[in-house]
Amino acid sequence: MEAMPELDELRLAEGTDDEGGVWFEEGGVEISASIEKPYLTEGGQTQKSSWTCINPHVDCLTGPVTVTWRVTGISTDRTDGTGTTASFIALEPGPALITFTASFTATLNEGGEDEEDDGACSPAAAPPAQPNTVTGAKEITVHQGAFIIRTRAMYEHPAPRSRPNIGVYEEVDCMVDPEPKGDVSWSVDQGGTIRSTDGGAKFTAGGETMDATIKADVAKVGQNTKPLKVMAPTGVQTVLKRVTVQQQQPSLEVVMLADTYIEPDTVNFGNAVFKEEICWAVASRYFKYQDKLKHDASLKPISGSVVVAGRGTLLAIPDGISGVSQGPPYDDGDFHWDIPVFYQDKAGFDLWRRAGVVPHHKKIRLNAQGKATLSLDKDQAHAQVTEP
Hints:
The protein is an all-beta fold. The protein has strands spanning 10-12, 22-23, 29-35, 40-42, 45-47, 60-72, 80-82, 85-90, 94-107, 130-143, 148-153, 165-167, 171-177, 184-188, 192-197, 200-205, 210-218, 222-231, 235-247, 253-263, 272-276, 279-280, 282-285, 294-295, 306-308, 312-314, 319-324, 333-345, 353-366, 372-378, 381-386. It folds into 3 domains: 10-143, no CATH class; 148-231, Immunoglobulins (Immunoglobulin-like); 235-386.
């Protein structure tokens, strides 16, 4: 053949560290390496799909080109496959050799007398097709980390304190293990701030959901990273604690205490404070006189650091909720607030952000005998009272 096929530059796929390799983690580390689509040259012309004979006086290349790959050197969950991307999990550290092989068929063309004549290959003049291959290899080193980064969230719950998800504004202690002999430089790409401390560093999460990567660089040793996910509140739950008042005459009245939880339950929001904000009522019929009644903002923000499974972070002060009629009810009626709940850092430096909305519903219903029932609902908290 006058021109052998060539593999274009062998490159690593985006997201794989080409220079420093990849760090081994417990359970294995995912690796994905790709090559450019292989191309063949024929008579000075580059061809990238099916190969046809353009000049009858050079070899006739026929396709398609099939690419396979194989990994050697370390234990992996997959050792070979097809395509221009090799994807596998390294089950141990060490140097891995990824070999790509492009296979194709070439037919030597000896037909035609005029070398300047362009025409189709002459099957009668061509020898039998011959299989051909070309290979290219790339070595990736899966490093056994000289150290790892350990993290310890400031709040004990939810366990464990080394949890990968943390609440907004939460602080996390970061340490290099084993303890390094050289100086350590700490940095974080986004999601919060980090500062060096005696024996490590302290990461302080920001106020929004974001993926953060903490990096430690130990002098004369190397570097390693640790991912953390900062999570903002995703909702609010209000759950009945107890009913304190059920008055039947002369007016109907019900008062209850409820616990407020900030979702989700996978993080701790102990470094944030929460408050209800202003909204206006939508009321009808019996409660028409309260239409557009203003719900005032909380006088003092509330915090909490106890996490309850299936609920979230419990705010420290119960919510007092009341509903009352003006004298004996004479008609059905509905009263509704959609109460927004906002959060901020305890120091008050950040913006107020919305955590969720809690529905508050008060209603009166008269039965066939004219007796009224006043019911009060705030999210999952419910209480009611009926005329005697």
